[in-house]
Amino acid sequence: MTKIRISTVAAAGAAIALLPVAAWAQQTSPDFGRYGWGPHMMGWGGGWPGMIFGPIFMILALAIVVAIAVLLVRWLGGPWQAAAAHQPPPARTSLDILKERFARGEIDKQEFEERRRILGE
How far, in Å, CA of 42 to CA of 7, rounded? Predict the structure, then answer.
């Protein structure tokens, strides 16, 4: 008796088992277009005109999600406080300078009183 390899028997068995599946897959259904599935789904006809709406609606949906997120963050963050405009410190008046000079001892009381009287005029 000749020896038959197990792999050959397994391959033959698999081929025989798959024959009905291959035959079933090759049959076409009589109601192929009845349910609107196939290469021309829902009457679009396929091609670029039907496929261009997918990316457009995806971008639109993403923009709406981002807008909602921004509005939600702004709403939860409370009122927006603008930074105050930079204002230079108030300029010193001549009377302030005169008082500083008197405090440092650069001028005496008589000179201080005379210059304060002149500045007051």
Answer: 47
Domain boundaries in the chain? 94-121
C-alpha angle 23-28-30 in degrees, rounded to nearest 5 = 135
Residue corresponding to tokens 């995806």: 58
List Cβ neighbours of 112 (8 Å cut-off, separation of 6 or more). Answer: 98, 101, 102
Locus of tokens 């009287």: 117
- pLDDT (tens digit, 9 = 90+) per residue, 15-74? 676 666 656 556 655 555 555 555 555 555 556 666 778 889 999 999 999 999 999 998
- Is this structure's pTM higher than 0.70? no
Tokens of 100: 């500083």
3-class DSSP state of 89: coil
